[in-house]
Write a structure and sequence with these properties.
Elements: E1 27-29, E2 39-41, H1 54-66, H2 72-90, E3 98-106, H3 114-122, E4 128-130, H4 138-141, E5 156-158, H5 175-179, H6 183-199, H7 203-208, E6 211-216, H8 221-228, H9 239-242, H10 247-256, E7 262-265, H11 271-285, E8 290-297, H12 303-310, E9 335-343, H13 344-349, E10 356-365, H14 377-391, E11 400-402, H15 411-422, E12 430-433, H16 436-439, H17 446-460, E13 462-463, E14 483-485, E15 490-491, E16 500-506, E17 511-519, E18 536-542, H18 545-561, H19 566-575, E19 582-588, H20 591-601
Parallel strand pairs: 6-7, 6-8, 11-12, 11-16, 12-14
Antiparallel strand pairs: 1-2, 3-9, 3-10, 4-5, 8-9, 10-17, 13-15, 16-17, 18-19
Helix pairs in contact: 6-10, 11-17, 14-15, 18-20
Length: about 600
């Protein structure tokens, strides 16, 4: 339940943002007719010079002049008001930056730390495999004929190992209650705890703050396996709460003692990124001091892929080929993703880890269109543009975009066109990719997995390769879009400014979310370097002796395989974890000495 030692936090970096597009407010103008009293002319704030509808505003002015409803004095006063707007607008402060402080994850088949996830991404790991027989009788529900009722035409997905394992005593849950809990609830508890530890935040500290919990979750397979299947003999006093999605967030706040905003979001595929957007808003308004965001998706029932087969959404070949000409649908995937967010000034004050910054986020809906489930390119490029505007950035300020990229014949071209429209005028290609080619579509958790992938890429300064891209989709006019698919591991482009990336997540419900991430500020230089042979103490604690030995073993392994400073590691273990009954400590001067002491403790 750890990843690496926590660095101290530097002063917040303040970007020089380009001037915002000016909006027009109420301007008091002299009347153009003697019989009209001087009165304010109200012009909609949504009309912006430099915005797409700026032409409409210009045409309106021309029409007023043509109809002699505007005099030269009125026009002069209006132009003078416009000239004075930029100076006033630039005085508005940029909304507080938000630190991505901690990350937790479970990805197929057994990836359980951010370090392992990043290594899997940069080396092109694929977590897709045949559906395990432990889930259901695969052959009984499979038929390659897509028109066969009550069947699914695919038997591939990104499946997790050991989803039945859980330590209820750690969270103060009885074994009987745990047996009736949806495995998604159990995994959420574990991964949220790991994200908190990754952030170096003792649980006691979070209980003193307004800690909010925002969960993206949209499936009820466990409920279907018990209640809907009318296995009434299995129902107990714990079944109702154990199978209810609405309890997923509340159980976390209850068991961990948090009293901030607590809610579960279901906008289908965009659930977890919409949850992240709501969490960011909660932080910026002061409603939350710390925000924990998580998403989860498990495939426990054959009903799940059968329903998606009815709308021909799944790939019959079991391969997600985003933006490729052979794309034939998405592959379902399982996983859990969690992040801990906090306002950057607090990150500085508490010397906590900062993996990346959340610069801006936004959400919208497709509105009316070709159908509820059909992607809407206009809504997508509007969302991307709104997020750039909120971040006070331009099209050239983003280096990479983690796309929704499901690998569908309809969705991919629409998304690329929307990106090209939002990023028109770029002077360099915008790299794009999709993590769905690695792990499948995690549905409610997909947006947050994309966010974590992008945060790790920004942190490490590399762009992970997208898999399964060989022949560009012929429905996309690649020669005239400023986009390049990152089909191999790439160093981050050198720009002379902080690394920046964007993330998209679009829901089949029509709800969309988008955000922009930025490289964390550089660490401040220490006043004096510590002596290399200065001894340090690594202190560990756990709820029982077996857990303590396991923790010592994992610390020893991580120390020997990394290049962490022993003093940083010791600081993290002594200040960044909750204290439990069973305790142990080792003292040493080097990583090797400390690792050996930990092995002896194990």
């Amino acid at each position: 339940m750890f990843d690496a030692p926590l660095p101290s936090h530097p002063s917040p970096w303040r970007a020089l943002a380009p001037p915002p597009r000016q909006a027009i407010d109420t301007v008091r103008l002299p009347c153009s007719k003697p019989d009209m009293a001087e009165s304010p002319v109200k012009i909609d704030r949504s009309v912006e010079t430099g915005a797409p509808n700026g032409h409409a505003f210009e045409n309106t002015l021309k029409a007023l002049v043509r109809d002699r409803k505007l005099s030269s004095e009125v026009l002069s006063a209006l132009l003078e008001g416009l000239r004075s707007r930029p100076e006033r607008a630039q005085q508005a402060p940029l909304p507080c930056e938000i630190a991505v402080a901690g990350i937790g994850c479970r990805l197929p088949p057994d990836i359980d730390t951010p370090a392992r996830l990043w290594e899997a991404l940069r080396t092109g790991h694929c977590g897709i495999r045949e559906t395990p027989q432990s889930r259901w009788d695969v052959e009984a529900y499979y038929d390659p004929n897509p028109d066969r009722p009550a069947k699914t035409y695919t038997k591939y997905g990104g499946y997790l190992d050991r989803i039945d394992e859980f330590d209820p005593a750690f969270f103060g849950i009885s074994a009987r209650e745990a047996a009736d809990m949806d495995p998604q609830h159990r995994l959420l508890l574990e991964v949220v705890w790991e994200a908190i530890e990754d952030a170096g935040l003792p649980i006691e500290r979070l209980r003193q703050l307004k800690t909010g919990v925002f969960i993206g979750m949209s499936t009820d397979d466990y409920y279907q396996l018990t209640v809907d299947d009318r296995r009434l003999d299995l129902l107990t006093a714990y079944t109702s709460l154990g199978t209810s999605r609405s309890v997923s967030a509340g159980r976390i706040s209850y068991l961990l003692g948090f009293n901030g905003p607590t809610l579960q979001v279901d906008t289908s595929c965009s659930s977890s990124l919409v949850a992240l957007h709501l969490a960011a808003q909660s932080l910026r308004t002061g409603e939350s001091d710390i925000a924990i965001v998580a998403g989860v998706n498990l495939i426990l029932s054959p009903l799940n892929p059968i329903l998606r087969s009815r709308i021909s959404a799944l790939s019959p070949t079991g391969v997600c080929r985003a933006f490729d000409d052979s794309a034939d649908g998405f592959v379902q995937g399982e996983g859990v993703a969690a992040v801990v967010l906090r306002r950057l000034p607090e990150g500085k004050a508490h010397q906590g880890r900062v993996r990346a910054l959340l610069r801006a986020s936004a959400s919208n809906h497709n509105g009316g269109g070709n159908g509820l489930t059909a992607p809407n390119g206009k809504a997508q490029h509007q969302l991307l543009g709104d997020t750039l505007k909120a971040a006070r950035l331009g099209p050239n300020d983003i280096d990479y975009l983690e796309a929704h990229g499901t690998g569908t014949r309809l969705g991919d071209p629409i998304e690329v066109e929307a990106i090209a429209t939002a990023y028109a005028g770029r002077t360099t290609p915008l790299f794009v990719g999709s993590v769905k080619t690695n792990f499948g579509h995690l549905e409610a958790a997909a947006g947050l997995l994309a966010f974590i992938k992008t945060a790790l890429a920004v942190e490490h300064g590399e762009i992970a390769p997208q898999l399964n891209f060989s022949t560009p989709n012929r429905e996309i006019d690649w020669e005239h879009v400023p986009i390049r698919v990152a089909d191999r591991l790439l160093p981050w482009p050198s720009t002379g400014r902080p690394r920046r990336a964007a993330v998209s997540s679009f829901g089949i419900s029509g709800s969309n979310a988008h955000c922009i991430l930025e490289q964390a500020p550089a660490e401040p230089e220490e006043d004096a370097a510590p002596a290399e042979d200065e001894p340090v103490c690594i202190a560990l604690s756990a709820k029982n002796d077996a857990a303590l030995k396991d923790l010592a073993q994992r610390h020893a392994s991580a120390l020997t395989s990394g290049s962490a400073c022993p003093r940083d590691w010791a600081y993290s273990t002594c200040t960044g974890r909750a204290l439990f009954r069973e305790r142990g400590a080792v003292v040493g001067r080097t990583s090797q000495q400390l690792a050996q002491g930990l092995l002896d403790l194990a």
